[in-house]
Amino acid sequence: MQLRRRIIRNHSFFVTVLLVVIAAAVGYGGARMVLNAFALRGESYEVQQQIEELKNRKEELEARIAELQNGEAVRREAKERLNLKLPGENVVVVVPEKQEVPDTSSSGSFWRRVIIFFKFWQ
């Protein structure tokens, strides 16, 4: 009888240790699954944002395509972007006046050249 109780105690200790190890493994696995779920939720939110941005961009491009179906819009775009002209039209190009670059190498004090430099870049 004494031997039997000892065997049961030894077995119950090993069973308890085994159950604790199994419980720890299950807890670790559960914690990893929760962390993965949070990471996936974050990625899902980012993907939803990208989808919304792409839908908006698609709508803008479709509106642009519809606008360019008009021949007048195509002519206006050709004039603005490609600087094209229709027969009989004249193109006027306005060229800004040339600014004189001050001569900083001339004799004068260092501070005078610094002042001239900053006046030039205003």
Please provide a written account of the structure:
This protein is elongated. The mean pLDDT is 81. Helix content is 74%, strand content 0%. It has helices spanning 2-68, 71-82, 110-120. The longest helix is centred in the first third of the chain and has 67 residues, at 2-68. With 122 residues, the protein is mainly alpha-helical. The chain has one domain (2-94).
Keywords for this entry:
122 residues; mainly alpha; 0% strand
In short:
The chain has helices spanning 2-68, 71-82, 110-120.
Mean pLDDT: 81
Number of helices: 3
Q: Which sheet architecture does the biggest sheet show?
A: none
Q: Can you give the helix content as a percent range? A: over 70%
Based on CA atoms alone, the radius of gyration comes out at 40 Å
The total of beta strands comes to 0
Order of helices and strands: HHH
Topology readout:
Blueprint: H1 2-68, H2 71-82, H3 110-120
